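Q: For a teaching session next week I want to show students how multiple molecules come together into a single three-dimensional assembly. I've collected the sequence lines for a complex. Could you give me the predicted structure tokens for the whole thing so I can convert them for display?
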Amino acid sequence: MTSSSRLYVIKIGGQVIDDEAACADFLQQFAALPGLKVLVHGGGKLATRIGERLGITSQYVQGRRITDEATLQLVTMVYGGLINRQLVARLQALGCMAIGLTGADMDLMRATKRPVKEVDYGWVGDLMAEDVRVEAFVQLFDAGQVPVLAPLTHDGQGHLLNTNADTIASCVAVALSAHYRVQLVFCFDQKGVLRRPEDPDSVIPLIRPADVPALMEEGALRDGILPKLDNAFAACRAGVEQVLIGPAHALSALSASSSGQSFGTIIRL
Amino acid sequence: MTSSSRLYVIKIGGQVIDDEAACADFLQQFAALPGLKVLVHGGGKLATRIGERLGITSQYVQGRRITDEATLQLVTMVYGGLINRQLVARLQALGCMAIGLTGADMDLMRATKRPVKEVDYGWVGDLMAEDVRVEAFVQLFDAGQVPVLAPLTHDGQGHLLNTNADTIASCVAVALSAHYRVQLVFCFDQKGVLRRPEDPDSVIPLIRPADVPALMEEGALRDGILPKLDNAFAACRAGVEQVLIGPAHALSALSASSSGQSFGTIIRL
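A: Of course. Below is the structure for the complete assembly, covering every listed component.
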């Protein structure tokens, strides 16, 4: 039990992974970040590109990829293999004791295959915070490891499951908040949540639930940001200290200022 | 320090991975094997098949694959991703606390990129027993983990390296013999080393260095078995208790008989 330690759960998406310069810069800042940390990565366009070359074209229903057998193999190769293993090798070169994991390793995240209703999403795993095996993460941190999580879970019956990286980041953050003071960080292609979407510098430094009605009235919070805010507040209500949304290239601001004010938008209760 | 514990380092090759029934059977026996254990896996034909579909055709020089950038990506995807991650998920379903790793994870195996002489082998790593970070393996065993190693190491400078799975198994076995009583097991498509290659039941139960001249005289030890024996004796001289060569489907014999006599051929000093 180390309830006083701060821990960062940091999620990067495809826009960082696809851009070599941005990725190198991010990894340097991530490696330099002191203290306990977890990296959760998404996929980027690589899976689509490799899938095309393999003749695997993903089907989408309501904006969600259907994970058939071939697609599961593709994401296991690209997310669980190529991207995850390369991130780990690069972090090791930067002196960061990284370890690359899926939810199957150490039984870290045992999800539920999404039930078939109107749509059969295939090999997709729905994860809940209570599915995260906290004691395994504690073991890793106590051994000085930095987990690098691919967006894959397992069903406990021998199958990997494709799981949204944002969901993994949120669930891991909530689960670990029982032991640590967790900050959940979503790296993002803007400087933060913008007051005026057309002005990239109009970052809202702090959003609390009471601020939402006025921000909506102003016309801020467009472009699908509202569900992100709802998820962030839910994570805070479940124990996460605060959620930060900001640009990958400014990650070092997290350690520079303990209030995190120079990194994007802070979301808290 | 747990110098009295027995530890198995077990290597499976493509012939097990490519055959679904053989693989399922092997994993069941591996999961049931009591005590400390490490699984090292090779590749199988899957990498070649996926490579063909991706238009990556490997070049060979003197029977060794040249690992250019595209081939390294391919083996990282297939060995480090698809095969390794699936083996772990399947072992977890069998109650085995598996964790899938390359040499980059936890800095477990930092190899040397093979120097360019007459041939440039590309991204190939030469591993030595002293390159194995023993304390990281001890941490894993103390935490109840079962490492599943893909045939990939790293150079400590951000690159993964393609490394022969037999070499990884031998180096890990030798390195860990400082802490454990290590048995190194090579699973193989025959019942053991055969006295008469045409008779699949003519298994030689035990080979010691003094037996080699007579066996050669008889005409046994053909088909490239001599280098395997040399490597096995070298491993024993470096601290491994014994080397076993036998069929994957008979793995359970290891725990049934502590002398291991019903599993293939024992090689010791």
